[in-house]
Autophagy-related protein 2 (Cettia cetti), 120 residues
Amino acid sequence: TSGVPPQLLALLALEDEPVLGYTAPTPLTQLHLHLQRCSLDYRPPPLPLRVLVTAETLSVTCGSGPEPRPGALRLLVDDGSVFLSERCGGGALDLQRDFVSVLDVDFLELVLSTWRGGDG
């Protein structure tokens, strides 16, 4: 119904067949993303601003696992900056002339953890 070919949907709809005497491990989901010398140009639709985020190194790791294990999101930024500009036009902008630095960090580590509390 969404225009996706049925063959592709059939390929992605994988099912495990039971194997006698084998218990499959609990699924574990992990995502690792590592970028070097990267930038993000963001223009929030309701605001007349242009936001430029740069980082020498950006690492994002997130994972979740079996019930007793907590989920976690870890964000590491090395030599990162946030710049703002009121010039939202389509032309090329100069970083030093058209943007104002609002945040500059040498190293930032942000860790968010989730857990399910016990009854005790």
Notes: Residues 33-113 form one domain.
